[in-house]
Amino acid sequence: MEPLTIILNSLHNLGRLILAHLPHVISAVVILVAAWGITRILEKVLSRIFSRLGIRESLSELLRKLVYIGVWIVGILIAAMIIFPSLTPGKILTGLGLGSIAIGFAFKDIFENFLAGILILLREPFQLGDVIECAELEGFVEEITIRDTHIRQTDGQRVVLPNSMLFKNPVTVRTDRDLRRVTIICGIAYGEDVDRARQVIQEALDGLESVSQDKAIQIFAQGFGSSSIDFEVTWWTGSLPLDIRKSKDKVVAAVKRALDQAEIEIPFPYRTLTFKEPLQTVMTRHEKNRRDSQDT
């Protein structure tokens, strides 16, 4: 009976201990429930406030998450101090300091992307719908989260870029402005008049819908090619990738048509071969054989 008595006494003491701490546990649960309720209320209130202030959705979501995390951290700390009265704010801060160092080393990349995401959302170097290029990856920005950014390439593939990559490397925002400058090279034969050809190309681009008429169209003779005089034709058009391709298509067709109508030659590549010794053609050898037979 003695072992049974010991067990019963232990259970009795445990029950008394639980009953003694039950008010603290209930208080801690109430604190956690209150923290949950506060986060729900703050989320709705902050959403309305940010909407009225005109804060963009990505930044609004970031601020709401930070408030959400902050409220839960405070609620958990208060609940822990209620359940464990010996746990003081100083001890908690000391434990958090040591723990943050260990966690920081273990999750360095995650925290790096997290901080980079916060800075990107605050500074907003690009927005949703922009076309960006980073590390030879180009596409439309579809989503910006705290950890990564999602872009959709023109071939339909989705690429997830860590925010630290966007923060550390140069990022080209191709749609930062409505217009982009486009350049093509057009060649004419050496026997053609350069000034006349330039005028014909200029007239071909004037009035084209895909070419901005508000900015100057620049046509310069670039240099002497292997078979042609090369012109650098530059104009402004829409900044989207599809706008660039459509505009190039229209310009190339218009320039080709205008040069053909003006009877200005767009040359094929010419090659001039120089031999050290004179070459005999097949006909020449036949003639030589015929002459040799006549002489005999």
What does this protein look like?
By secondary structure, this protein is of the alpha+beta class. The protein folds into three domains: 2-106, Orthogonal Bundle (Helix Hairpins); 126-173, SH3 type barrels, CATH 2.30.30.60; 177-296, Alpha-Beta Plaits, CATH 3.30.70. The chain has helices at 2-53, 57-83, 89-106, 108-123, 163-168, 194-205, 241-261, 282-295, and strands spanning 131-134, 137-144, 148-152, 158-162, 172-173, 179-188, 218-224, 229-238. Strands 4-3-2-1-5 form a five-stranded antiparallel β-sheet. Strands 6-8-7 form a three-stranded antiparallel β-sheet. The protein is elongated. The protein starts with a helix and ends with a helix. The mean pLDDT is 82.
Short description:
By secondary structure, the chain is α+β, with helices and mostly antiparallel strands.
Question: How is the topology of this model organized?
Answer:
Elements: H1 2-53, H2 57-83, H3 89-106, H4 108-123, E1 131-134, E2 137-144, E3 148-152, E4 158-162, H5 163-168, E5 172-173, E6 179-188, H6 194-205, E7 218-224, E8 229-238, H7 241-261, H8 282-295
Antiparallel strand pairs: 1-2, 1-5, 2-3, 3-4, 6-8, 7-8
Helix pairs in contact: 1-2, 6-7
